[in-house]
Structure formats: structure tokens, C-alpha cells
Write a structure and sequence with these properties.
With about 375 residues, the chain is an alpha+beta fold. About 50% of the residues lie in helices and about 15% in strands. It is built from eleven helices and ten strands. Strands 1, 2, 3, 4, 5, 6, 7 and 8 form an eight-stranded mixed β-sheet that branches. It has a two-stranded antiparallel ribbon with strand order 9-10. Strand 9 and strand 10 (about 265) form a beta hairpin.
Length: about 375
């Protein structure tokens, strides 16, 4: 099993990193989060120009047929720059759900997603805080004209501004979880937009007897597909989290070596030195776990157990690194003007997505 990045993946990482370093500094990102815009349309267009939006899709869908290693290689840079653009949610989740369907209308949306012409949102979470499809309560009632969707989705990233929603609902007739796509203009949708703690645009969306045609169904039994789709997205989101952890480690180490008390850097004090050592060990654990899981996924051998290990480990380690960074920075670590707190909030948000580390470690113990 090869754990190293290819030359092409290194070049991809370098290209994305150079672009973000030039156009996505901390102050620019803060101004973007504080604005009325959900994300930067220019940055999204540049992602399309770089081929990132088309990368996961197969050549049959007009994509570039990239591997999960390709996606992980540059997603670390997204975490370092705290990118708020909804790549993992619009492309890895919604796009992958569309790509899993034989519905010809899905292919039309994939083409729009890959070119950056449209953005999709993955309407899955209902307040349960886990990835378990059996907890989905939203219903899809079939009738002569199509389906009637009823229920509410929570924390739909990009849900307030997406052109199309990929929606998970339980079929009333069979009890199986199906996937549908619902265009934004569909009557019966009510959206409550907000900004998440880590700066992403999100919305709670109410579906009041939303009527869609029979051609809006993507999959009539999506449980297995959802497991695969969410697993792939969690690997990419974990790469983003790893990038945030690495940034926190660098920032905190530099601060501890330059901030002086009693005439010497605070890194020389035993308590700080031990905390920095713990942060480095935690980062090394996170890196090795992600690398191993990515290699498994790349070879088609990843299991649900591996995903529980990944999400449980990185969620827990990310929290530890974030809390240690704040402790070393003292009161500065809690200020909005310093990026430390923003990285910590990104790691907290990552931990909460599709089940926190307690949930995944508990599932691991049940196997």
C-alpha cells in the first residue's frame, strides 16, 4: 500500500495553496464571513477553473475521474485557510448523490456543478447529530403525479443559496430512505438561513407538502449509497480538519517561541513544552489515521469500522489541539481578532458533523 502523494497530487496541492495564500488571507476571509454573501463567487469560479469541482466526477459525467487521494491532497489547504466555500457539501455529498443515480436529469445537474454554474446542498441532517439513515423522519408519499415531501432538514450547508437540494426522505410505502432532488423554486419550501460557528452559510429548511415529479427521484433505496457517499465526504472533511490542526500547531509553536516571560520564551517553561509536545503527538496520530484511511479508500478496501476510527480519532484529537492552542495563547486565544479561535471553531464544527467523536467511538466499541 503506497502512502505517498504522487507528483500530480503534490502539484495540485501547491496550486491550490498558492491561490489561497494569495487570495484568501485571514482578514479577507473575516470580511467575507461578515458580509451578506454566503461565500465568494470569485473563489468558487476559480475552484472550477482549477478543475477542483469536476475532479470527483467520472469522465462519463464530464468530470476528471479523480481519486480520493487527489481530493485529500488539496483539501488540507482548505482547512489551513478556513475556506467557507461548500466544496465537501456541494460536490462530495450532493454531487456524489447525483452521480449515483441513473436519472438523466441528475447528469444535467452534475454538468452544472462541475462547471461552477450551479451549487447543490445536501439536505440530510434533522437534528439527530449522526449519519444514521434509519433516524430520518422526513417522509415521501408517492401519488399519481410524483411525490409529496414533508418534514424539516437542519443545518443544511449552503441550503439558503443552493440552486438545487439533494434530499433524503423515508418512503411511506416501503420505509426505505430515498434520495430526491428539489429545485429552489419549488413551492412549499421555507428556508431559515444562518451562519455556523465556523463561518459557513447554512439553513434550516421546512418542506410543507412539497410536490415533485416522479423524475425527481434519484434513488428509491439509498441506504448503501449514502454510506459510501458520506464515508468519502468524511475523508475529505477530515483532510480539511487536519489542515486546521496543522495551522494551529504552527501558529502556537511560533507564538510560544517568540512570546517571552521572565526573559525567556514561554516554550521553555515545562508546562508549555509538555503541552506543545502533546499537540505534536496528537497531530501525528491524526495524520497517520487519515493517511491510512485514505489509502484504504483509494484501494477500495475501506470499511465502516475504518470511518468510525477516522472520525472518532480526528474529532477527539482536533478538540484537544484546539483547546491546547487556546490555553497556550491565554486570553488572546479567545479573541475574534486572532485566528486561533476560528480554527478551534472549525474543528468543533467538524467534530459535530455526522456524529461527534463519542458517537463514532461508541459505534466502534459495538462492533
Amino acid at each position: 500500500m503506497d502512502f505517498s502523494y504522487s507528483q500530480e497530487q503534490v502539484m495540485l496541492f501547491d496550486s491550490v495553496t498558492r491561490y489561497l495564500e494569495k487570495n484568501y488571507d485571514f482578514d479577507s476571509r473575516k470580511a467575507l464571513v461578515a458580509s451578506d454573501e454566503p461565500w465568494s463567487a470569485n473563489v468558487w469560479a476559480q475552484f472550477a477553473e482549477l478543475g477542483l469541482l469536476a475532479l470527483p466526477f467520472s469522465e462519463e459525467h464530464g468530470g476528471l475521474g479523480g481519486s480520493i487521494s487527489d481530493l485529500v491532497s488539496f483539501s488540507r489547504s482548505f482547512g489551513k485557510h478556513l475556506v467557507i466555500e461548500p466544496f465537501a457539501f456541494a460536490i462530495m455529498l450532493s454531487g456524489a448523490a447525483l452521480a449515483a443515480s441513473a436519472n438523466p436529469r441528475a447528469a444535467e445537474w452534475i454538468e452544472k456543478l462541475a462547471s461552477g454554474e450551479a451549487v447543490a446542498a445536501f439536505a440530510y441532517e434533522e437534528g439527530n447529530g449522526t449519519a444514521s439513515p434509519e433516524l430520518i423522519a422526513m417522509t415521501a408519499q408517492e401519488n399519481d403525479a410524483g411525490f409529496v415531501l414533508t418534514g424539516e432538514k437542519r443545518i443544511v450547508i449552503a441550503g439558503g443559496d443552493a440552486d438545487v437540494l439533494v434530499v433524503a426522505a423515508k418512503m411511506c410505502a416501503t420505509g426505505k430512505v430515498a434520495l430526491f432532488f428539489v429545485e429552489r423554486s419549488t413551492e412549499g419550501l421555507s428556508t431559515s438561513p444562518f451562519t455556523t460557528i465556523d463561518g459557513r452559510s447554512a439553513a434550516n429548511i421546512r418542506f410543507d407538502n412539497v410536490r415533485v415529479g416522479s423524475d425527481a427521484m434519484l434513488l428509491d433505496d439509498a441506504s448503501d449509497a449514502l454510506d459510501r457517499i458520506i464515508a468519502q465526504a468524511l475523508i475529505v472533511l477530515s483532510a480539511e480538519a487536519l489542515g486546521a490542526m496543522h495551522a494551529l500547531l504552527d501558529i502556537t509553536s511560533e507564538y510560544a517561541m517568540t512570546r517571552k516571560q521572565f526573559g525567556q520564551p514561554i516554550a521553555m517553561f515545562q508546562a508549555i513544552a509538555h503541552r506543545l509536545a502533546d499537540m505534536k503527538i496528537a497531530y501525528a496520530k491524526a495524520l497517520s489515521t487519515l493517511t491510512y484511511t485514505t489509502a484504504l479508500a483509494n484501494s477500495g478496501a475501506v470499511t465502516a469500522r475504518d470511518i468510525h476510527v477516522l472520525k472518532g480519532q480526528l474529532g477527539k484529537l482536533g478538540r484537544e489541539i484546539g483547546e491546547s492552542a487556546i490555553q497556550v495563547h491565554g486570553g488572546l486565544g479567545l479573541t475574534d481578532e486572532l485566528n486561533v479561535g476560528h480554527y478551534h471553531k472549525r474543528l468543533l464544527a467538524y467534530d459535530a458533523m455526522f456524529g461527534d467523536h463519542d458517537y463514532h467511538l461508541r459505534k466502534l466499541g459495538q462492533r
